[in-house]
Amino acid sequence: xxxxxxxxxxxxxxxxxxxxxxxxxxxxxxxxxxxxxxxxxxxxxxxxxxxxxxxxxxxxxxxxxxxxxxxxxxxxxxxxxxxxxxxxxxxxxxxxxxxxxxxxxxxxxxxxxxxxxxxxxxxxxxxxxxxxxxxxxxxxxxxxxxxxxxxxxxxxxxxxxxxxxxxxxxxxxxxxxxxxxxxxxxxxxxxxxxxxxxxxxxxxxxxxxxxxxxxxxxxxxxxxxxxxxxxxxxxxxxxxxxxx
Length: 244
Prior knowledge:
- By secondary structure, the protein is mostly helical.
- It has helices at residues 2-15, 20-39, 42-45, 51-55, 57-69, 74-79, 81-87, 92-112, 115-124, 129-155, 160-176, 180-187, 192-200, 203-211, 217-241.
- It has one domain (2-241).
- The chain contains 15 helices and no strands.
- The chain is globular and about 55 Å long.
- It starts with a helix and ends with a helix.
């Protein structure tokens, strides 16, 4: 695990070595505030909670997480440093895990910086802090799942732009699988068991279940398994592509 820790430290530090990290954090925090307070009519609801705030997270991550994920491997492949990395005493799974954890930690920093919104709600009323904590955990888990998807697709191409587009499309499909409009569209020609199966693989379905304040182990396990499956796929893609 020393190799994983070394890669984690190097990658995490690299996010703050350029102004790009600051730009990303500013955009994330600005949109995280604009969506609930202006588009979501936060004050019009008359409720002191963060349901509106978390409702926009899947769509916020849909654009911002692929922007983080697209550089994970596409940049390494384009610059030729992937081959150099893999010639070191580092196994592919260690490199994948180290880079993923660094990017996930960076997203955790971005999410943690939204705490003034939590403080604002607590000042305005008496929210259920247990629900808010569960929603933050669910949001972080969903961000990790988005990141794992984007990282796998980043490993499959040398172009960051293509990696970004593929990740957005893939993550959108994972969201729409649980969207009521999509489920209604397939309910007419699929049996209910199949509709339930489609809903069960949706990031949106499991995230919404967590934001209700019930941190069900099944929802947590779903995100952990989804992350693990996409990381395993990333390792396989790198093994296949490392000779290209």
